[in-house]
Amino acid sequence: MVQHTLWVLLLGIQSFPTPQLPPGFTAQPVLAALEKPTALVLDTQGGLWVAEQSGRVRWCAPGRNTGEVVLDIADEVLEHQDLGLGALALHPDFAPDGGPTAWIYLLYAVDPLPPLDLPNGTDQRTSFGRLARWRVISEDGVPRAEPDSQQVLLGEQLPDGRAPTGLALLHDSHQGGGLCFGSDGTLLVSTGDGANYTTADAGGLQPHGFDSFVHPVSGQFGPLPADQDIGALRAQSLLSPAGKVLRLDPDTGLGLPSNPFYDGDPGSIASRVFALGLHNPFRMARLAGTGSSDPTGGDPGVLVAADVGWSDWEELSTVTAGVNLGWPCFEGPSAVSAFHDAAPTTCDAAGKSARGPLVAWRRDDAGALVPEGVHVDAQGTQQGGFVGQCAIGGVVLEGDDVPEVYRGAYLFADYGHTWVKALHLGAAVEPVVLSIVDFGQFFSGPVAFAADGGSGSFYVLQRGYTDGLGEVLRVDPPVGVWQSASGLGLPGDVLELAATGAAKPQNNVSFHAAGAPGGAPGFVGLSLGGAAFDLGGFSLLLDPGVPHVLVPLLFDGSGAAQWSLDLPPGPGLVGRTLWAQAFALGMEPSILASQGLWATVGAP
Questions:
Q1: 45-46-48 Cα angle (round to 5)
Q2: What's the predicted TM-score (pTM) here?
Q3: If 0-12 CB within 10 Å is exposed, 13-18 middle and 19+ buried, where does residue 249 land?
Q4: CB neighbours of 251 closer than 8 A, spacing ≥ 6?
Q5: Nearest to 433 by CA among 443, 441, 423
Q6: Where, residue-wise, is CATH 2.60.40 in the chain?
Q7: Which of these CATH numbers, 2.40.128, 3.40.50, 1.10.260, 2.60.40, describes 497-600?
Q8: Is the distance from CB of 156 to CB of 165 less than 8 angstroms?
Q9: How many CA atoms lie within 13 A of 306 on its CB side?
Q10: Can you list the residues of the chain whose pLDDT is less than 50?
Q11: What is the per-residue pLDDT for 399?
């Protein structure tokens, strides 16, 4: 099997090109020089928190472009291939005051031979995953984690080498890496199966990783319980925390009585399991507006997990209490015969209970998209599906400035194919897919997202495709939302105009127009309703007393065109109402087809 590692060199790109975004959206880097970044969180004060694979956590104050090191546990972390510090979360009521909510949570691979960062199996020693938290205090306005405040919630290692609650990490990948809080304040953790990705691993390939092995020199046991030596099938076993979504008490790491497999012992593995049957769920997020605030109810909300595939399929899946998502017996919608042959009883049971993916796309066949017929462009035109290599979960895009075609959608990405798409879900306890709309492309290794509240802005953590430096990119929506201008009736063309932000500076406004590929040249007229500007240049007075300007609009081969208008100094555009109108050629003595768009310009 061909395994896709998250950080593999895919395109040979070393710089960060500007992503292609929908009309009106803008992007700018806000934090750079990040060393192999893996995770991103935005705090309630607008500060950015970034995890680096080596074991460092950086914080960047709002409006700054440099990151302060909050915590460095590089000596404890195994950084090798996909393994390392993979996820972080802040207490939902986070305040860096050393108090009961001043906690940062980290999920990472433990280095078996610190600080060497050698491959798993070196000197017959194996890594395992750990979940721990640190208390944070503020020093001169900068948050710092107290190193001696570490509390291990999963993966405490005993003096004899065993780690009974450690997470299986027996090869170079499949670590997982999702941390988020439920609506009820419980901590949710997504874990990978920790198996060998080069073959259908049903166990027995890494014996030194289990406590049935005793190291010939040190006398220490392997870290994991021997009953977990079943390879990828750990994802189907309640004896293992691997390949799961766990739901924990964030203060203790113990399971909760409201968990679906609670067995009376909060310290058991089964009591911690919320959902099973995942492969490598690298990112996970809770859908806004779902879940209860009562932790005794067992409803932390509907989760969407992005599960990185093994050989064929990438997946987004909805996660609710007790659900089985099928891995390794199923990848995407397809049965995996090698595991059915290796464990027919387990896979027969999984086949009867497993929930299929919410969305699944193949690595080699765009037409195989599941569900079919839901992929459209921003104009609603049916598309032929898409391919990818590494699913990355994202955030819900909310805000009055977000165009309707993207508003309320769940953004997700594919690390291997540089795109970001917008998923619209039906409002239900178990959401259904309404549409998947193309949003952007040419992102440089997107690995995490963070939404800036309901502003319509969001952050993308770009790792890139080499072992160079990553960055955080801020994406902002248009200022002032234009109505859709589709259906103008121009010969061969459908135009759409959008403001790309107003008053940056106040006397500049830009427009984009999108038409059919090979669209004919046309014109755009702009009216500044009630504004006493002397526009100069070639103008067209359509209504007495209201200034207008007529701008030629020349489409390129893809059907895209854009123009920017700089106005003379004056009161500016803020608070003014703009009117844009698209025209076809041959407009005299009358306009062949047009449609006006109104928007009031907001403050910068």
A1: 120
A2: 0.80
A3: middle
A4: none
A5: 423
A6: 497-600
A7: 2.60.40
A8: yes
A9: 27
A10: 1-14, 480-550, 555, 567-604
A11: 87
